[in-house]
Amino acid sequence: MKVLAIVNNKGGVGKTTSAQNIGAALAKSGGRTLMIDLDAQASLTRSFGFSQEEVDTNVGSFILNEAKFEQVVLSNGLLDILPSSVALTAKEEAIKSAAVYPFNLKIALDKIKSRYDYVIIDCPPALSGLTRIALVACSEYFIPLQPEFLSYEGLRNFLQFANDIQQISNGILLGGVFATRYNPRIRKKLSHDLIASASEQLQDRFLQTYIRDNIALSEAQAKGINIFDYAPESNGAADYYNLTKEILERINNYGERK
Question: Domain limits at 237?
Answer without folding.
Answer: 2-257
